Q: What sequence folds into this?
């Protein structure tokens, strides 16, 4: 018998009670019990645990994938290369009107280096392609660089010797992937030779995979590095070609940007650049040196997309958590008594929270593991699925940092799930449960209403915002193209005239323009012959001579004098048969179409069509006023007869459409074959026809839909992703709302059963359950209209073309969302009211 | 049956001292007085029953005494300690160390074994598992349920479940045992057995306050408090054999 006086057991001061509190870890059996209970329920209650684990895993995988993508892209876009912030990308830009071209070439490097003697280091990387001959032939990426580039950028050396200035062009370094895949990681490979494009090269080392270019095609894993010495470089070449595959990088140890003024000085005043400058000054163009952080260039527009996607992923995760909170509320409603008993037995609120946390953790942990597996799978799947179409996904790399972030997120989510389930005290809620009189009592009423409101509100914001985004995206991708996305093939050919004839013709052209015209006529005749033969063989298709398709990856530009200021500007030009524009469904806004008679018009008054952009430059907002005005080029004058709607590819560029004339230069011509929607061109027939004619060489094919796909790939990625995420959020919200409807009707089943048993009409019961929920749904949807307009306002800073939806659309969407939400609430109530009231009462 | 040790009446200080206690439930503008001006005290080792018609406030009073609910007016001293200003965690602490509960509906946790149910208060105290094992075994032996320690509640009869519930209530050697209609869900045979057990515990030194509406069982107590419409209308002392 314990004879200790009782009063000594109850301390008279509350502080001493605190000191008596056991250390939390000494209660470990309770924590273990909770975790074990959760694990048992995971298997015992698949109807609850499967939706919980799968939905959380999917959303976590989505979050992890997008977060990894964003981190890779925003923080470390080039794995293995640190201090990327110190590197600047240098470009020599020339404004040619329709576009700004980077004409940076490796031949510029010695001059720039000389102009900038200092602690900074330059790296020049030229990306190209080559064919590597082993047992089979492999397409590889070739990277030509100066010897210091590897050390300067910090590309890790895996095997062999680092490249040095003394290396020659016949030595090669393999990428790690190429070494592993094609040479099975043979460590004795150093000193062996390989064949690249007929050249024999000696292997000197293996470097890590380099993903330092913005275009995914240049970041392919099979790479071969070759190094050149500055002294081997020739004089600065005169050429006006885009060098988007060339990177000139400058790294200063103190991250100082380059002194572009000094480089500009070199470009302007050095005698090395005289010939180079002369070429541009003849075209009224001045190259200018500009620089930007390498990181910014690598990120490009994808950075904005990544941030938006990350925001959407977080919202989706929140909606999922709200759903799961509801699921947990439903699950723990039946466990109220257990919680009450824990409290009665002396459990503190904090510890009870910990116990519930562990019980829910037993469900979130499998979701976490599953999500990591899914994300790793997506990391491999997405680049394989999209190929080079969407470079952004090539940046995807789930790292340890991402996993730590995920674990923290899961910890917080578990906490968020368990937090609202714990009662503040034993009072009110739990006493009736302990007394066994809590039948049909509504638990977590406030919680479920908060969940309902936030869930619908958030997803309505997402849906309304995304509706604007998808509408703008849809129009720009599919409807407001300025042409019909028809079945159309295009090809151009090499005309293999005899070399001596061509040389003779070229020389003659300088001395005798008539001979040159005759040469052109010869070419023209050959093309007309080909066109006629093809039209005969393909009677159901339209065969048209043209310099290209309505959108085309190659384009031609001319310097023209443009009214009203008579300034010289570059204009994109195309020449085609008069029926070309109608055949492709281009839209005439003002004036008339071109006609066959226009081909015979005088040389100093050639009729042309122009696009909206050029019309705006000429006549401001009154586009029709541009008709009748003339553009000039030396002794040729072009008269505007019509204005066409902008073609999406060139929406910000000035375009001019000429009629193909017999005097036109036919070196750039090709044939477009336009087919009905259900027909396609048999390329074999075309190629066979070409072979029947002399003087035609290799054929290059283009396809309108492929060109469209190339130009719209980023927009389509945005469009698909946003549509997918929006649909997901709406689906999640519907499931969540249905879950709340189910919970409400389930908790009130006793009351409903009693009312049914006493003769209540179904309509009254529907109203009873739904009445408190419907105004909440309406408030959530209305609030989301305001919120989505605010979000769109912020997003329009990034995407100026973004427009808010018309009011009628917004109203329609609001009503639709409310109706969908109301139906989602109504369905489970209907199911609950189908039960036999007496059966329900017996089961309670 | 081995005897469980309990705190004994070694002092003149009441375990429970209630004076002018009132409890008001308010729902919007409507206020309901569940308890009015209740005053009584319970000395260590005493067995007190509280009885009265349904809705008279018996369970409300028991919940207040068990620190499961607060009160609106008056004072309640638990072993001399004012309880009005105690925080939630302090109440939990005191319940864990000094109060044991037995409910009409047994209220065992279905997902736990008999052993785990009984061990619950000790584990919340953070006692080593060895001590927990010893005390749980002793407690289960005291209620004659030691042979069922790995059973789940659903595998036990009502009487057995109530005996496990009593084992859980006494396992921490509480100073005060609060018992709410312990026989309400039992047949007379099991009810008698449970009452015999409670009487035995009281004889071993346990202070018991029991709510019951069954006059047969209230007679087991040394004193019976009669409630009517939230007021204490009578306090009857009995000679118990």
A:
């Amino acid at each position: 018998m314990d004879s200790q006086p009782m009063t000594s057991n109850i301390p008279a001061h509350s502080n001493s009670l605190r000191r008596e509190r056991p250390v939390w870890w000494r209660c470990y059996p309770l924590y273990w019990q909770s975790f074990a209970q959760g694990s048992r329920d995971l298997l015992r209650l698949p109807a609850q645990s499967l939706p919980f684990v799968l939905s959380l895993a999917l959303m976590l995988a989505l979050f992890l994938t997008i977060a990894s993508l964003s981190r890779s892209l925003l923080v470390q876009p080039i794995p293995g290369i640190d201090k990327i912030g110190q590197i600047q990308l240098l470009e020599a830009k020339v404004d040619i009107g329709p576009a700004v071209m980077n004409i940076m070439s490796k031949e510029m490097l010695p001059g720039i280096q000389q102009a900038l003697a200092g602690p900074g280091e330059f790296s020049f990387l030229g990306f190209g392609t080559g064919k590597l001959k082993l047992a089979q032939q492999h397409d590889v990426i070739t990277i030509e660089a100066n010897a210091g580039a590897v050390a300067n950028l910090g590309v890790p050396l895996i095997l062999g010797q680092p490249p040095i200035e003394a290396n020659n062009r016949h030595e090669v370094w393999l990428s790690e992937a190429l070494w592993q895949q094609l040479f099975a990681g043979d460590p004795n490979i150093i000193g062996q030779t390989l064949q690249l494009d007929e050249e024999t090269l000696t292997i000197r080392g293996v470097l890590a995979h380099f993903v330092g270019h913005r275009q995914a095609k240049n970041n392919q894993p099979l790479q071969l590095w070759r190094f050149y010495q500055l002294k081997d470089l020739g004089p600065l070449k005169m050429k006006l070609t885009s060098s988007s595959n060339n990177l000139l990088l400058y790294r200063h140890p103190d991250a100082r940007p380059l002194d572009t003024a000094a480089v500009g000085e070199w470009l302007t005043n050095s005698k090395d650049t005289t010939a180079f400058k002369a070429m541009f000054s003849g075209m009224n163009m001045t190259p200018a040196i500009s620089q930007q952080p390498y990181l910014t260039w690598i990120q490009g527009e994808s950075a904005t997309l990544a941030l938006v996607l990350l925001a959407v992923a977080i919202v989706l995760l929140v909606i999922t958590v709200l759903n799961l909170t509801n699921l947990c509320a439903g699950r723990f409603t039946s466990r109220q008594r257990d919680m009450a008993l824990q409290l009665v037995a002396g459990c503190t609120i904090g510890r009870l929270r910990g116990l519930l946390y562990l019980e829910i953790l037993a469900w979130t942990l499998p979701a976490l593991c599953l999500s990591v597996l899914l994300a790793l799978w997506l990391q491999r799947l997405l680049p394989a699925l999209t190929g080079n179409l969407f470079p952004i996904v090539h940046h995807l790399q789930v790292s340890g940092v991402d996993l730590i972030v995920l674990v923290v997120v899961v910890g917080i989510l578990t906490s968020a799930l368990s937090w609202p389930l714990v009662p503040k005290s034993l009072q009110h809620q739990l006493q009736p449960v302990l007394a066994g009189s809590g039948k049909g009592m509504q638990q977590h009423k406030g919680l479920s209403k908060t969940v309902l409101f936030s869930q619908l509100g958030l997803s309505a914001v997402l849906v309304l915002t995304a509706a604007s985004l998808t509408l703008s995206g849809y129009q720009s991708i599919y409807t407001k193209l300025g042409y019909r996305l028809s079945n159309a093939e295009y090809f151009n050919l090499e005309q293999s005239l005899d070399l001596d004839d061509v040389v003779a013709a070229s020389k003659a052209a300088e001395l005798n323009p008539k001979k040159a015209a005759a040469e052109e006529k010869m070419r023209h005749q050959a093309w007309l012959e080909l066109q006629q033969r093809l039209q005969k063989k393909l009677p159901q298709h339209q065969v048209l001579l043209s310099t290209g398709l309505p959108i085309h990856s190659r384009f031609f530009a001319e310097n023209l004098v443009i009214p009203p200021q008579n300034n010289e500007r570059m204009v994109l030009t195309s020449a085609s048969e008069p029926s070309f524009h109608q055949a492709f469904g281009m839209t005439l806004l003002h004036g008339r179409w071109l006609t066959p008679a226009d081909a015979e018009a005088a040389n100093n008054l050639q009729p042309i069509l122009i696009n909206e952009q050029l019309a705006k430059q000429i006549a401001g907002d009154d586009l029709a006023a541009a008709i009748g005005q003339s553009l000039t080029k030396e002794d040729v004058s072009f008269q505007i007869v019509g204005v066409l709607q902008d073609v999406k590819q060139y929406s910000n560029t000035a375009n001019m459409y000429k009629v193909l004339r017999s005097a036109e230069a036919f070196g750039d011509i090709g044939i477009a074959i336009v087919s009905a929607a259900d027909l396609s061109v048999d390329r074999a027939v075309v190629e066979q026809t070409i072979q029947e004619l002399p003087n035609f060489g290799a054929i290059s094919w283009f396809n309108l839909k492929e060109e469209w796909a190339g130009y719209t790939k980023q927009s389509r990625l945005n469009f698909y992703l946003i549509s997918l995420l929006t649909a997901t959020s709406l689906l999640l919200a519907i499931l969540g709302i249905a879950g709340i409807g189910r919970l409400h009707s389930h908790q009130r089943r006793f009351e409903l059963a009693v009312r049914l048993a006493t003769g209540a009409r179904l309509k009254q019961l529907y109203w009873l359950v739904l009445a408190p929920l419907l105004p909440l749904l309406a408030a959530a949807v209305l609030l989301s209209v305001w919120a989505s307009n605010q979000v769109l306002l912020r997003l329009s800073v990034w995407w100026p073309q973004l427009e808010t939806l018309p009011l009628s659309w917004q109203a329609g969407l609001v009503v639709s969302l409310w109706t969908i939400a109301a139906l989602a609430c109504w369905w489970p109530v209907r199911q609950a009211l189908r039960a036999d009231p007496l059966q329900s009462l017996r089961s309670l | 049956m081995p005897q469980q040790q309990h705190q004994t009446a070694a002092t003149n200080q009441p375990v429970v001292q209630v004076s002018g206690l009132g409890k008001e439930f308010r729902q919007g503008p409507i206020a309901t007085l569940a308890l009015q001006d209740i005053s009584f005290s319970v000395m260590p080792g005493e067995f007190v029953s509280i009885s009265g018609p349904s809705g008279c406030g018996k369970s409300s009073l028991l919940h207040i005494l068990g620190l499961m609910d607060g009160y609106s007016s008056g004072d309640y001293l638990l072993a001399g300690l004012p309880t009005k200003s105690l925080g939630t965690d302090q109440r939990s602490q005191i319940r864990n160390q000094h109060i044991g509960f037995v409910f009409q509906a047994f209220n065992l946790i279905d997902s736990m074994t008999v052993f785990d149910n009984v061990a619950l208060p000790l584990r919340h105290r953070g006692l080593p598992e060895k001590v927990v094992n010893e005390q749980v075994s002793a407690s289960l032996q005291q209620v004659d349920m030691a042979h069922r320690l790995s059973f789940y509640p659903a595998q036990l009869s009502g009487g057995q479940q109530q005996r496990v519930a009593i084992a859980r209530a006494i396992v921490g050697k509480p100073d005060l045992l609060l018992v709410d209609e312990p026989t309400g869900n039992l047949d007379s045979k099991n009810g008698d057995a449970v009452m015999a057990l409670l009487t035995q515990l009281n004889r071993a030194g346990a202070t018991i306050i029991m709510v019951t509406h069954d006059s047969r069982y209230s007679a087991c107590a040394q004193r019976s408090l009669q409630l009517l419409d939230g007021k204490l209308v009578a306090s009857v002392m009995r000679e118990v054999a």
User: Anything to note?
Assistant: Chain B touches chain A through 62 residues (CB under 8 Å).
